[in-house]
Design a protein that fits this description.
Elements: H1 5-19, H2 22-28, E1 33-38, E2 41-46, H3 49-58, H4 60-71, E3 76-81, H5 155-166, E4 176-180, H6 186-200, E5 206-210, H7 211-223, H8 227-235, E6 239-243, H9 252-267, E7 271-276, H10 288-294, E8 298-302, H11 307-321, H12 327-336, H13 341-357, H14 364-377, H15 384-394, H16 399-403, H17 409-425, H18 430-436, H19 442-458, H20 460-473
Parallel strand pairs: 2-3, 4-7, 4-8, 5-6, 6-7
Antiparallel strand pairs: 1-2
The protein binds adenosine-5'-diphosphate and magnesium ion (MG).
Amino acid sequence: MSVTAQSVWNNCLEFIKDNIQPQAYKTWFEPIIAVKLTDKSLSIQVPSKFFYEWLEEHYVKILKVALTKELGETAKLVYIIKMENTYGNKQPFTEKIPSSNRSAVKSQDVDIPLNNKSPELRNPFIIPGIRNVKIESQLNPNYSFENFLEGDSNRLARSAGLAVASKPGGTSFNPLLIFGGVGLGKTHLAHAIGVDIKDKYPEKTVLYISAEKFTQQYIDSVKKNNRNDFIHFYQIIDILIIDDVQFLSGKTGTQDVFFHIFNHLHQNGKQVILTSDKAPVDMQDIEQRLLSRFKWGLSAELQSPDFETRVSILKNKLYRDGVEMPEEIIEYVAKNIKSNIRELEGAIISLIAQSSFNKKEITIDLAKQVVEKFVKNTKREVSIDYIQKVVSDYFQMDIDTLQSKTRKRHIVQARQLAMFFAKKLTKASLASIGSQIGKRDHATVLHACKTVDNLSTTDKQFRKYVEDLSKKLAV
Ligand code: ADP
Ligand code: MG
């Protein structure tokens, strides 16, 4: 069988597909076309310059491993950047740009796009072609200050939010970073600030967006080669609210673009409001320069509400829903569900539902049943820390040992298992997993996942480890 560009590339793709997320594979590898193979050098065509930069930044290691496997140590990768131009001219405009020396795989022939002017500002929220100058704020009017009840656990964050809402961009709370655990009201408070600003300053452009959606829009803009439009769009916002910025962990491209947007807004006196599930000091894999920006303003924590606050949140909810419930039952629920307001609301909603579906009176017994089921069924969030704890407990070692540099076989295996489960059970990137489990790099994590896969098919004892740990980690 003869070796062709296509056959080499197909083998590379097979390897890559096994080692990255399906969505990433689809986005970044499916559009690539293998063009030619000369000696040990494979040329691939990518849709745009940003596509090429993205591959270089995020996938160069895996590309190198894959290609070396196929063509040996002297393998080279050549990117050809393909851009459709609008003049029907099939001849691409070609220019050489210096090869990046960050990587051992060298990029050489880089055809850069002839026509990369962006004639109009594109709004990533709008389907192309449909003109719409007004930017929808994406705010949920049900999340207001009025129904964000005050307690010791949220007083600082709530009053900082109110201050920002009355003078957006005009206080020292810029950015305002609201942080705290799951279900403690970060999203609610962030919306409330936006809603209040819209109310007081109808002419200001407010935009709420989750960091996840922001990332997706950014990736799309790179794919469509309109990254500049994306940046410009965000630079005209007066109040930018980004929810769950911890999602940007390990996403250097998105962090980079956000850094530029942030600087622009901040310099122009625009308000930035961020939420995160961690304090800035605990954020992993967020670039230092971005972290230092987060600390410019105020970081305010939302803590778990105390009993009185939980009772008033429940009463308020019942009042708004027009439901009456005996005091005793409200207190029972508030006493038993402590850590999370979302769960608190969930329990009271299922209690109401249970009683109305089954035409039962709401009694303390019914409340007990519901709360019990509720507490049992609530999904725990698995964190990488938790995985490391479970794995090291299982092997009766402490976490420091698990993370240590030793090559002792059982410790290496424990570490590899922790990495494997972190990949399987969290959304963290390989790089982020590596840095949290003993400061290893992304290739080590990749290798660990492969090893665990292999060993669990060939080694019975090892398979038992995987099964036991799967059970322990089941959420
Ligand atoms: P997070 O974004 O921190 O995970 P959310 O903002 O989604 O949490 O809050 C979870 C639920 O708890 C929402 O329904 C929200 O309205 C409610 N909630 C949180 N804090 C309060 C509060 N102080 N008063 C009333 N409801 C609250
Ligand atoms: Mg939230």
